[in-house]
Amino acid sequence: MPIRVLFSRFRSRLFPLTLLGLLLVVSQALAQAVPQPQTLIPASPQIAAKSWILLDADSGRVLAEHNADERLPPASLTKLMTAYLVERELNRGNISLDDTVRVSENAWRTGGSKMFIEVNTEVSIRDLLYGIIIQSGNDASVAVAEHLAGGEAPFADMMNQHASRLGLSNTQFVNATGLPHPEHYSTARDLALLSQYIIDDYPEHYAIYAEKYFTYNDIRQPNRNRLLWRDPTVDGLKTGHTDEAGYCLVASAERDGMRLISVVMGTSSEEARAQETQKLLSYGFRYYETLELYEQGAVLNTPRIWGGEKDELRVGVDRDVAMTLPRARNQELSARLDLRPDLTAPISLGDRVGTLEVRLGDEIVGEQPLVALESIEEGGLFKRLFDQVRRFFSSLLSGWF
């Protein structure tokens, strides 16, 4: 067979194979060059409320909001602060759950929702706390205000002092109940922050917020938070309603270790506040996840320290570090430690020595102080002099020593 014919047949078979190989190489190159799509996060749902917010309870990241800083009447959401102060006094040992409170005529006569305590009877702090949280008792709220502060006005002053301490910058209380008053207001953001403190500061009392019923004086009343019956992951917190405020709800739910807090204010009905809250919670859990990055006290670095009893300092964070991010993007997380240069003894436990910076891709999504996890005293005279010499040569020789 002529060589030319043989080559022609060989070429006819070789060309499709060569073309196929070339196409495979090109397709692989294109696959590498074209960026892979990120997790798409849709716009937050349309919520039929005057004001609302959704945040992660651990990281504090706001996932969605609308008019979250608008000052509105909070109605019985006020009782979140009333209950918080009772829990604080319990925690500090100033009162106990078994202490009793004598019910005044003023407390007994308070209008609105009631626990149905009777004048001149003795009621335990435990029952009053349940009555405030579950039954939304205005009479119970006034009774504890009088017991803790001598009256509702001085108790409201205490509420405002703690609102300031907690950073609730758009909140002012005039009473312990939430009954309407033109100078009594709060915001969705402030109420979400307050809920964070309730959950974090006094977890031993938080289970009360998930109770569906409470019976006092042979009167059984349900918790007005309908989501406690509909969603087993919801475990709090408080409803509110007046004509001025509309129907309000602060809710919290936990799924797979992720806790969300939602606030809706000014909805049109009991059913609406439950449905709108469910929309927010479903959105947050579906499209976001919270990762625990570092535990409180974890050693993140051991930088050189000069002039101390020891040569290295254990550095870390003084609180748990969590980040909330769109689902399936955890591979894009990175952390950077920005430490103060030339750390010198003495250094005390808890002193800030730098910053932990967390990025999601190119975006900074969180910063946390880096602190000393131990105290290091000055070394002896010889140690300090020796370190001065070493530091001098270290700076000259770009860290050889």
From TrEMBL:
Please state the pathway this protein functions in, per its UniProt record: Cell wall biogenesis; peptidoglycan biosynthesis
Q: Which SUPFAM superfamilies does the entry link to?
A: beta-lactamase/transpeptidase-like, Penicillin-binding protein associated domain
What would be one Pfam family of this protein?
Peptidase_S11
Enzyme class, top EC level, equals hydrolase
Q: Which InterPro entries match?
A: Beta-lactam/transpept-like, Peniciliin-bd_prot_C_sf, Peptidase_S11, Peptidase_S11_C, Peptidase_S11_C_sf, Peptidase_S11_N
Signal peptide (UniProt feature, chain positions): 1-31
Quote the SMART domains the UniProt record gives: PBP5_C
Q: Which domain of life is it from?
A: Bacteria
Domain Peptidase S11 D-Ala-D-Ala carboxypeptidase A C-terminal residue range list? 288-378
Q: What is its EC number?
A: 3.4.16.4
Catalyses which reaction?
A: Preferential cleavage: (Ac)2-L-Lys-D-Ala-|-D-Ala. Also transpeptidation of peptidyl-alanyl moieties that are N-acyl substituents of D-alanine
Gene3D superfamilies given for it? Answer: D-Ala-D-Ala carboxypeptidase, C-terminal domain, DD-peptidase/beta-lactamase superfamily
Keyword annotations of the record:
Carboxypeptidase, Cell shape, Cell wall biogenesis/degradation, Hydrolase, Peptidoglycan synthesis, Protease, Signal
Task: Please give the Gene Ontology molecular function terms for this protein.
Answer: carboxypeptidase activity
Protease listed as a keyword: yes
Record function comment = Removes C-terminal D-alanyl residues from sugar-peptide cell wall precursors.
> Can you tell me which family this protein belongs to?
Belongs to the peptidase S11 family.
Write down what this protein is called.
serine-type D-Ala-D-Ala carboxypeptidase
User: Which species?
Assistant: Halomonas sulfidivorans
